[in-house]
Amino acid sequence: MTHLTRRRFAAAIAAATALTTLAACGASGDSEAEKAKEITFWTPQTTPQRVAAQEKVAARFTEKTGIAVKVVPLSETDQKQSLATGAASGDVPDVMLHGATTTAAWRSQGLLNTKAAEEVVEELGADTFNANALKAFSLDGKVGAVPSDGWVHLLVYRKDLLQAADVKVPASLEEVAKAATTMKATGVTGIALGTQAGTPSGTEGIYSMFQSAGCQLVQDGNVTIDSPECTRAAEQFKVLRDSSAQGDFDVTSARAAYLAGKSSMLLFSTHILDELAGLDKANPTTCPQCKADPAFLSKNSGFITVLDQSHPAQYGATLGYGIPEGANTAGAKEFIKFMMEEGYSDTLASATEGRIPLRNGTKADPNAYLDAWGKLGIGPEAKSSVAELYGPEMVTQIRDGVNAVSLWGMGTKDSPLAGAVTAENVLAQFLERLYGGESPAQVTKGMAEEVKKVQADL
Fold first, then answer.
1. Cα 266 from Cα 54, distance rounded (Å)
2. Cα torsion for 236, 237, 241, 243, to the nearest 10°?
3. What share of the chain is helix, strand, coil (3-state, %, to 5)?
4. Could you read off the pLDDT of 390-431 as tens digits, one per residue?
């Protein structure tokens, strides 16, 4: 199936799915007075525990304002499918929590009330937000959605294993590749990261490592994934992949390798923090030393939150609150402000390790929300905080990592292209060619040709 056919097929499925999900928006026959007293909120945080936590915060908002909130768990994919159809009929939600690349796509389609989002940011104080996050949700300096929270990739390493092998903590992609090769010779996987061809995990692995090497997908409309920086990144990515003693990894197997003590390094999101401490029974630590001390890995792991200080571009995810055109704007704005102030910490606590604040604090206390986040419990039982487990300096490290989150095309007109390339795993489809012996220059040239095809179809 060609890339164009795939998109047409996906569009057909989207249209069909949208018909079944639009009911979440509410009955179109409601009176205007009734609509003014309620809002519908779409959230991609869809697990029962997270939905319940968000409903509790929404109930507090209702108690304060008298505005009822219908919390609708809806994946971002389903949100995209439903909003386009709902906009045509005038049946839209009032607030949507979604990613930065989705904001760019909806904005280009005229589906977002960007003026309302700008007003919320201005009222809360633009300088209280993570500057990079504001850029991610902006175009031409104008905000399209209100940044809320996100996660960032961490490069986790075994302090004890690297020290025993006399390997210094890496500070660049080249140094990571060298360290991984050295560690494989000691009998463990050098680094576990997403390397499976054509998969989302492979896409994340490419995105994270290529960006850290100064590689850009596209600049000012010009596809640059075949630049010298990107070609060198592809060369080093193969070295990382070849450092595995266990084959290619996806997210699940990469995590399992590190938790079992079979890898000296791991590329993973901040969701790993509770698991390293033995707090997640679904993903327990299984290393030999972990039998006596389930928290062994948290005590013997170090973290790199910004790999290369000369290229502070970390891969991560950013979520923000958008208001569609045709929504209950007044109610939506009040809800977002509540979620970013009184209800902020409890909202983040619904999944602490994966919901790091993009608003660090208030004008009066610039780090209030970040400090509060560091004290929130992590893991299923939320008994211990990041600060308690890893020290307060780790909270600062994570802040630096989140501040460095950068997405290709972020804040520019190239964002929709970057989003499409990521969603379709375009770059990861070339990994087999890289692994099979094709030169990195040929691989990145092929990547560029395919990205240009996607660009032509937008």
1. 31
2. 30
3. 50, 15, 30
4. 999 999 999 999 999 989 998 888 988 998 999 899 999 999
Q: What is the pLDDT of residue 416?
A: 87
Measured CA to CA, the distance from residue 119 to residue 336 in angstroms comes to 11
Is 406:313 a contact under the CB 8 Å cutoff? yes
* Radius of gyration for the chain, computed over Cα atoms and rounded to the nearest angstrom: 22
User: Does 6 have pLDDT greater than 70?
Assistant: no
| Ramachandran area for residue 311 (φ above 0: left; ψ -120 to 50: alpha; else beta) | beta
Is the distance from CB of 243 to CB of 183 less than 8 angstroms? yes
Q: What is the DSSP letter of 387?
A: H
CATH of 3-150+316-403, one of 3.40.50.300, 3.40.190.10, 3.40.50.2300, 1.10.287.3510: 3.40.190.10
152-314+411-457 topology per CATH: D-Maltodextrin-Binding Protein; domain 2 (3.40.190)
- What does the alpha-carbon distance between residue 421 and residue 207 come to, in Å, rounded to a whole number? 11
Indicate the domain borders of the chain. Answer: 3-150+316-403, 152-314+411-457
Question: Quick one: tokens of 244?
Answer: 């595995």
Pairing of strands 95-99, 38-43: parallel
